[in-house]
Design goal:
CATH architecture: 3-Layer(aba) Sandwich
CATH class: Alpha Beta
Oligomer: single chain
Strand content: 15-25%
Mean pLDDT: 96
Helix content: 25-40%
CATH superfamily: Alpha/Beta hydrolase fold, catalytic domain
Order of helices and strands: EEEHEHHEHHEHHEHEH
Largest sheet: 8 strands, mixed
CATH topology: Rossmann fold
Strand order of the largest sheet: 1-2-4-3-5-6-7-8
Number of domains: 1
Radius of gyration: 17 Å
Length: 277
Amino acid sequence: MMTETVKLDVDYGAAGLTGEGCGATLTCYTNTHFDEMGKRSRRAVIICPGGGYDYCSEREGEPIAFRFLGYGINAFVLRYSCVKKPFPTAALECAAAILHVRKNAEKYDIDPDKITVAGFSAGAHLAATAANLWDNELLYKPLGCTAEDIKVNSSLLAYPVLTSDPRYCHEGSIVNLLGEERPDEIREFISLEKRVHENTPPTFLWHCADDGCVPVQNTLFYMSALSENHIPYECHIYPWGGHGLSLCDETTATWEGHIQPAPAEWADHAIRWILSQ
């Protein structure tokens, strides 16, 4: 295994942002290239940890990367700007991560057309933002690249924050992302079930029906939007387990409630799905 951490180059000013206190990093975990085995042109997954846009959870970063890495999928953990960093700060950083991985496809031995963006909770909102806005100049223009340079080939969304509907949203994530004074039209814009369109990539989703933090309607609304737009998807709804499960086992558990054998199967399903894309 080879690892490196790079600081992402983002021109915040080009997007009308100050960039004060911002600074995203991408930690790269790649399978070692052996001459005996030759180049593999592997799949890549960029992981956006959750944390309510307040912090980046370590439980949803490196341990997830290692699980994918063990199946030959090169993994990249994005630590993006949080806490009063106005939209689209984190989205630009996620786009910059995609750009970096795609530009360095040969170095990382990955297929530039097989890049999955994965996210957990609020990190899934970030991943879905990239998945739906990659072809919007809001993201590619400030980076000085084309839409194809930051294209998301598939997305993986785990117990995702997706809607900004006050009835079903995770209000803390929305406030951290937008602030309390942002106009209603901006709040509506980041309700991602409304941003699904013909260029939204194939998507894998999972959620627990009893999630008391981020209601399962976030996934249900998004799944419906994918269906209406004829976007391929796979979705798993587990009857119980709650929120913030990460790998659902001892690997990432901080209390016994995080150990959930039924939802733990999500990783195997997701890995098979990514490898089939």
